[in-house]
Amino acid sequence: MKKKDLRSDTVTHPSKLMRKAMSSAEVGDDVYGEDPNVNRLQSYTAELTGKESGLFVPSGTMSNLIALLSHCQRGDEYIVGQQAHTYKYEGGGAAVLGSIQPQPLEFAADGSLDLQQVKAAIKPSDCHFARTRLLCLENTQGGKVLSLEYQAAADQFAKQNNLSLHLDGARVCNAAVAQSVSLQEICQNYATVSICLSKGLGAPVGSVLVGSKDFIEEAHHWRKMCGGGMRQAGMLAAAGLFALQKQYERLTEDHIKAQTLAEGLQKIDQLSIDRDMVQTNMIFIDCAAGIQEPLTNFLKHKGILISGYGQLRLVTHLDISDSYIPIVIKAFQNFFQE
Ligand SMILES: *Cc1c(COP(=O)(O)O)cnc(C)c1O
């Protein structure tokens, strides 16, 4: 029985063709700037996002960290969502390693940060306060896509208020595909964007940070300091290039699978899904508190893995084939019938 792992889109395995691209990749020493595939990946991603430069980084966590370290000095502050990955799920790295103070704010239901609230959180220029330097947004946020209008307004707002604007775009490719726009159209609103290759795009490892040439030079320095300088990384970069070139457009399929899955699960009385919030490849499900654990265990026995902290979360990706969807819905139904 094949496992149906819906915990995250990070669990994808490299396909045969991706492995082929990796194994035949030409390599060099990237710390000397001599790995052709790393260079290719960086310039390809920069072009795709409309930025001057890109930097290949081992993980999204390090990519966000070095972006924060490059934007902010010791004693500066960044404004970020209370549930944002860079604030809540990255070990407090910006504070610990950068002496950068986070100012978290609640996300609105649509995954945005209310710009009036951001405005109110900006500290006056006074020695009592940290210097508010940066606004950090996330797109997609919990699978939700930020509107283009909002992102343009955030860009204007940041400029008016002398803030830099960084996007944790771990899944920004999902957002672009869902809105049928180019990555450039989204990324033009931000000074810097971090993109995960190892989520829905299906590469085994890596993220790319993009921004201006000067910014990426600074980030390069911080990457080295954080221990992120890799040598013959071209095999990984080749996987990243393959992911961007061959597995980007297909993200639409993951979104369609998520809709089909949500539609089926919604019919089960004991489950509640806010369908408006299913916009890309993630489904969040509310159910009675006592049900979560036995349900998760029941599904696990059937080879179906889901995750849940408060809400249950199911994520579709390239290793969840169309044929799995009715099987997963059936398994949920069986649990409630027994
Ligand atoms: C996964 C993720 C990251 C970075 O994750 P890594 O596991 O370090 O690559 C950053 N932000 C968001 C929103 C993510 O989902």
What does this structure look like?
- By secondary structure, this protein is α/β, with parallel strands linked by helices.
- It has two domains: about 230 residues, Type I PLP-dependent aspartate aminotransferase-like (Major domain) (Aspartate Aminotransferase, domain 2, 3-Layer(aba) Sandwich), CATH 3.40.640; about 90 residues, Aspartate Aminotransferase, domain 1 (Alpha-Beta Complex).
- It is about 40% helix and about 15% strand.
- It contains 14 helices and twelve strands.
- The strands form three sheets. It has a seven-stranded mixed beta sheet, sandwiched between helices. The protein has a three-stranded antiparallel beta sheet with strand order 9-12-11, covered by helices on one side. A two-stranded parallel ribbon has the order 1-10.
- Helix 1 crosses helix 11, helix 2 runs parallel beside helix 11 and helix 12 runs parallel beside helix 14.
- The mean pLDDT is about 95.
- Bound molecules: pyridoxal-5'-phosphate.
